[in-house]
Amino acid sequence: MMDEFERQSLYNCRHEFYDNVDSDKFVQKLHNHGVLSESQRQKIQRCKSNREKMANVLQTVSFGNQDCYQNIVSIMKEEYPMIANKMELELLKERTSNSRDVNESLIEIINEQLLPIVYGKGKSNEEDFSSKRPHSSVSRLSELIRQLQLRCLRILNVKPSEARNTALPVLINRKIKEQQEVVRQLKEEINEIKSPKKKNQSLHEELDEINLAEKIYQLRKELQDQHERVRLLQLSVHSKESTVLDLKTENAIIQNEIQELRKQRPLGKLQVNLLFDD
C-alpha cells in the first residue's frame, strides 16, 4: 500500500495533474501498467470533466500497492518529465521533513523529560542535537534510558541479572512491600516496648535479676562464714588434741612415780586415783 509520504507527495502535485495531464491517456496507461483495474478504469471514465477524472484517479491510486507511486513516476517521465521530477522532489522533501520532525521530537523528549529524570532539572544538562542526525538522538535516548534503568536498580538494590524481563514498576512495588513489612515489624517492637505489660514484665525480670544477685551474695557470705567456723573448729580440735596428749604424757609420768613409790615403801594397800587410764 502507498505510504503516507507518497500520498502526501501525490497530493502536493495535484494541481500539476489537473492543469497539464490528459486524463484519458493517463488512465489508459495506468490500466496498461496494471495500476488500475478494468472496473476502476470504467468508473473513472464515467466522470465528465478532465479535472473530475484526474481527482478520481489520484484518489484511487492513493490506495494502490507499495510500487504504485514509482509506477506513476515512470509513466509521467515518458510525457511529463517535469511533473515526474516534482513528484520525486516532493517525496524526498516529505521524508526529510518527517525525519527532521522526529529528530526535533526526540530532542524535546530528551531535554524536557528524560534528562531531568536522570540528572535533575537544569539547563546545564540540556544537549544540543541541532546538527546531529536522528540516529544520534536515538542513540542518546537509548543511553539515557539505560542509565535510568541502572540507577533505579541500584537504588532498589537489585542486580540487573535479577531484573531481567521484569518491569520496573513491579520491582518498585516489590521493594515498597519489603519496606512496609520492615516498618510493620519495627512498629510492633515499639508497641511491645511501650506497652504496660511489657514494662511490668521487664521490671519483674529486673527485680528477679536483683533478687537472684542478692541471694547469690547471701549464699556466698554464708559459705564464707561456714568456712571460717570450720577453720576455727579445726583449730579448737587441734588445740584439744594437743592438751589430751600433754595429759597422757603427765599421767604416764605419775604412774611411773607411783610404781617407784610402791617399790620403796610397801604399805599394804595403797589407794591411788589415776587421772587417766591407758
From TrEMBL:
Top-level taxon of origin: Eukaryota
GO terms classed as biological process: regulation of apoptotic process
InterPro entries noted in UniProt: CARD (IPR001315), DEATH-like_dom_sf (IPR011029)
Any matching Pfam family: CARD
Residue ranges constituting the CARD domain according to the UniProt record: 10-89
Protein name: CARD domain-containing protein
